[in-house]
């Protein structure tokens, strides 16, 4: 039983990263052709809400649990959607449009590092500094940060030699009203990559907070299907508001080329099914476990991007990814020595258990 659960969680985590890698490549190509990332995130959320929202609504309606909606549960759903969708995806894809899918995917490797640090300071992760396995965790974290900084330096140097590519990306940034002021602030020729890198890193940090917040509340929502559907719906409303405020209406019109296929794939297989798997893994194995598989998307993207998008793969990118992956799996090895997988998940007090929200509490996944 334990072995089967472990296999399912590993298979689910691998699926999420492979699905995201394909989305990184396709969305990068769509962005360089002028697609607005606001439109992509918005329509992706709409598709995800329809894909998983209808089954979740059926379960709630069949069980007569719509009346169990409380302000407490709505607060959790709103916060999860805000940091995991509105902040994370909009910042991330704005950065992706100004950098490369290899860099953006590799910056995802900051997610397990930040998640680990947050879990440690919030007493969700045990680190015994005087013991060798605790030192290995710290060393693995330093490797991840060092590899990410190495890749940032080399990508920035290489990007300055690719003037034409940046001009195309800067034209994309002009699509939304805040673009002109941002370009004046950072400079068109030299600041675009650094600004994009900053946006990508902010998006990664938001996803880390998304994982940690899930770990605190996921036990109150045994049905990950319904929780992911509610988060997708709330994120859809938030992204609609963001798009109306920050994007030109004409940029929200879908072009009938590759965009509908990209939106459908991302909404169903990445946001819809992917969010459900992520929430299930967080509940069963903790927030650090699911984030430790992020390097898989970097490997796939780094191999496929030069073949499909004719992008330049720099030596710094290869070295940076190697260092990051080595650091992540050094942490995994040290984590396995703990012998206590439950330390990744928060423990609820008796009072908190008694105050669990009734919403979804009896819904089967």
Summarize this, please?
The chain is an all-alpha fold and 365 residues long.
List keywords for this structure.
365 residues, mainly alpha, 75% helix, transmembrane helix, EamA_dom, transmembrane, transmembrane transporter activity, WAT1-related
Q: Could you give the count of β-strands? A: 0
Which class best fits the helix and strand makeup? mainly alpha
Computed CA radius of gyration, to the nearest angstrom = 20 Å
Q: What is the domain total for the residues?
A: 1
Figure out the total of helices: 15
In angstroms, what separates the terminal alpha carbons? 18 Å
Multimeric state: single chain
In percent, how helical is the residue content?
over 70%
Strand count, sense and barrel status of the largest sheet are: none
Principal-axis shape: globular
Strand content: under 5%
Low-pLDDT runs of 5+ residues are 159-181, 340-365
Mean pLDDT: 75
Order of helices and strands: HHHHHHHHHHHHHHH
